[in-house]
Amino acid sequence: MAVVSTQTPSSIYPSHLLEETPEFQDVIASSPPPTDDADLAAVRVGAVLWKLRSSNAWYRRRYWVDTQNMRLHYEPSHKPFWCNAKQHVDILDIKDARLGWKTDVFNLAGRLAEKKRAKDPQRPPMLREDCCFSIIHGRENKSLDLVASDPETAATWVRGFKSLMTVVHAVEKRRSDQQWLKLLFNQADKDGSGALSFDECCQLLLQLNMKIDPEAAMKLFQISNVNKRKIKGEQAIDAEEFIQFYQLLLVRPEIETLFRKYSEDDGASMSPNGLRQFLEKEQSMKDVKAEFAVGLIRRFDPSPSKEMGRMTLAGFTALMTSPMFEILDESQRDQVVQNMTHPLSHYFMASSHNTYLTGNQLTSESSIEAYISVLKNGCRCIELDLWDGPDGEPVIYHGNTLTGTVPVKDVLNDAIKPFAFKTSTYPLFLSFENHLCLEQQAVLATQIKDAIGDLLCLMDVADMKELPSPEQLRNKIIIKAKKYMSVGSHNAPSPTSNSSPAPSPTPGKEEQPAENNQSSSQPVVPLPDANSSQEKTLQPIAKDLFDMVNICEAVKFHGFANSLKKDKCYHISSFSEGKALDLITESSEDFVRHTTRQLVRIYPAATRTTSSNFSPFPHWAVGSQVVALNYQTNSKEMRMYRGFFRQNGNCGYVLKPQYLINNTFPLPLQHDKLQKYLKVRIISGQYLPKVGENENSIVDPYVTIKILGHSADTFSFRTRVVANNGFNPYWDEAVEVFLRAPELAVICFTVKDSQTIGASRFIGSYSLPVNHISPGYRHVPLVRNGEPLSSATICIQVEMKDLND
To answer: Is 346 a catalytic residue?
Structure first.
């Protein structure tokens, strides 16, 4: 029985041949001096570095890169012999290499070093920033914080790692390409004979995370051995034959059937015309030219047939499993395709709740890595809970809990400034929960000016009739905050001599705080009620901070009728998920009308202390733009959320459907007209990894399909279980569904491992908008914990029809 090996793919990159790859040469050619082979040579030789675990925990070790297995190693280790913790970092797991104090550990250590230096200016610096660098790795974005003996060594290691990361990730994306397979072949060819025996090929397949039935593999090996070469009495295949052997292992019945259908009479090869017919009839591609088909043959076919302009089964398989035929519409993957000139209120926005937390809402750590992670994933609204910190500088944490703190200054300088526009150039919102005294508000304003002052949106809103567009606000940072805070409340600043706008003695209700102290991000302390003898007054925030709030001023909500009369287009109100659902039940049409003009933010209930998430779909269905979820939790809601924002180039903004923009929101009974027909045939799976720690267990996979969106479009389906097969399970089951509001519908494919006792175990999933599924034969790349599962896919066939044409 074919199974998937538990070996990691980190050992599949041939060291001595990395320099020969086109990716490596591109890195060297495009890098500014002095990034060259010397940097990579230096990390291979290694250096003695200090590892910093905390400000008072230093470890002196030698570090070097093992380029045969593509790992960063260190020695000596002082761990006890019974500890199984690995003493290396896989290069494939490295997310970033940063020079200087750019992590939580270094920032804390740096501040302590500067304090000691301030007390004794003659004292030599304990920690020089230009000698420090960090390696960010793993799913949890852990930091390996290292100190070199001199600035040149630190800079060399950072350049070397950046080059390695670029090469490895580029090569990883070309796993089915001939160049990559030839590199693997040359690595396995230890004696330089130019050929591999059957046993050597099987060892190489293990490195590729493939463990297959030897008898089946031998049959394919013999088919591939066209030249019938023997070495030491054993059959052996050359590089071209090995590529054929590898791709024959990937051949699947559904692909072979398609190939025979469009190939010539002998069934051995496909002409450009046959390939063109396949692309038009099965993949719904329009007006495919013969030249385009010839180009695909030359790109994907490894055999000499390509020289004659014909495609073999191996080449066809490589084409079918390439990114070209992934399920997400190619036009949506890397480019913005929607009109970005509408007012901001016409877009859904990828938004994070309590962004700083790495885990639960009560005891988890706060980290700049949490901000960096969501920004890299396209999030466009991040939250900062601001509290008075030591030494007169504000900090971020979940107030009145045991969560860790992180200085605002670090978040501004090391997360927001460098990563705000790495993934998306469209505006970034900073959602402030302001609990600062006036003095620290003034400090905050200075820190903002110093770090991101040139990026701030500072629009005059006096005569603003509608919000500006994302296009107008490209590369701008917008602060969402209250301009007035209640004096005497638990979170109000005490009046001081700090300059601020004149207090408003009788403010209108629209100037009230947005959250009303009911948010899950602060403790519940009621303000005096209307019958109390204590007079309620509002104190404006510090003037410099006040002046930074313009197109996103937080105000308290007093009902849709009141908002229509008094609110400005730049006012934003926030609701807990429960309050929002109550308002939707009371008047969904008023909710939609409100969100055509103003922004609305929805946040999780305070009871979600484990950082669980709620469904965003009921809120999107009435036009709520800023639906904030806990990004750190890989829940089914978060998987759907990520899938929704995969469209439009993952820029973090999605244009609403027209009926949520032009105020023609359909009542539930009026929206019964069927809009789209969708048929999905779940055919097979490939390279599904094991789950759990039992090396002898083999997965029993099944697939579920779930569709969420409009309340009338909820749908789920489950295949049968295929026993003991994670290598190539075959289901061949189809399902049909009709949708009423496909613009909001998201489909999620989930693969699970069935268990005799207990709940099924999650293997991987992938979500995307229904309207952006590509038709025809497609493969679904599985993701787990936000990271792609290398080579793990499911093969499907999709048929779609718009019923309103």
So the answer is: no
